[in-house]
C-alpha cells in the first residue's frame, strides 16, 4: 500500500467547482429558483474550507500548546450550538442556551470516551491534545449532533404547537406533564436520530464514509480505515442520541412547569 497521496492543484479544484453547474442546470430546467442559493452555498463552501485549511495548518504546527486545540474545538462547539437553533422554526426563551449545553455535553463526553476509552490516546506522540485526533473526531461528532439537535428541536416545537388541544385536554383530565408531553418528546427524539440510523443502515453498501475514504486515499490500509470508521459511526450515533434527548428534555422543562401546566405562550415562530 503506497504511503503517499496525489496533491491537488488549483486547476483541479477549479474543475471540481464546475460540477456545481450541474446542480444549477437542474434548477434552471425545473424552474426551482435555487440558482442563487446554490451559488451562495458553493462560494461559502470554498471560502470556509480554505479558511479552515489555513487555520488547521497553523494549529497542526509542531509544539503547538494544548490550549490552542481546546480553544479551537470550543469555538466549533459554539458555532454548532447556534447553527442548530437557526435551523428551527419554533422557538422559546432559553432555546439557545439549551442547544449549546446539549451540544457541548454530548459531543465532549462522547468525544472523550472515544479518545481515551476506545482509541486510547496518551502522552507522547499520541497525546489527546494533538489536533490529529481531537479536532477531526469532535468535528464529525458536532456535525452529526447538530443535525440531530436541530431536527429534534424543530419537531418538538411543531408537535407541541399542533397538539396543543390534545396536551391541554390530557392535563385537564389529570395527566402529569410527562404523560401529556411524552408523545411529542418521543416523536422529536425519533426524528433527530433517524438520519444517523439511516446512514448506519447503508454504510459500506451504498456509501463509503468521507473519513474512511480520506484515510484510504492518504495511504492507510483499508482494513484499518474500516476499523476507524466503525468506531466513528458508533461514537457519532451515541453523541447524536445524547444531544437530541438532552435538548428535547430541556425544552420539555421550559414548556411544562412543575404544576403540570403547558406554557404554550412561550412558543413562537421565528418569523413572527
Give structural notes.
The protein is mostly helical and 272 residues long. The protein has two domains: 1-59, no CATH class; 65-269, no CATH class. It contains ten helices and two strands, in the order ααααβααααααβ. It has helices at 10-17, 20-29, 35-59, 66-86, 95-119, 131-162, 164-172, 177-202, 210-217, 222-255, and strands at residues 90-92, 267-269. Helix 7 packs across helix 8 (177-202) and helix 9 runs antiparallel to helix 10 (222-255). The radius of gyration is 22 Å and the shape is globular. The model has no long low-confidence stretch (mean pLDDT 85).
Describe the structure concisely.
The protein has ten helices and two strands, in the order ααααβααααααβ.
Task: Describe the structure using short key phrases.
single chain; 272 residues; 2 domains; two-stranded antiparallel ribbon; 10 helices; 2 strands
Mean pLDDT: 85
Number of domains: 2
Number of strands: 2
- Sheet-strand content, in percent, reads under 5%
Structural class: mainly alpha
Question: For the terminal residues, how far apart are their CA atoms?
Answer: 58 Å
How would you describe the shape? Answer: globular
Question: Which helices and strands occur, and which strands form pairs?
Answer:
Blueprint (H helix, E strand, L loop, with lengths): L9 H8 L2 H10 L5 H25 L6 H21 L3 E3 L2 H25 L11 H32 L1 H9 L4 H26 L7 H8 L4 H34 L11 E3 L3
Helix pairs in contact: 2-3, 4-5, 4-6, 5-6, 5-10, 6-8, 6-10, 7-8, 8-10, 9-10
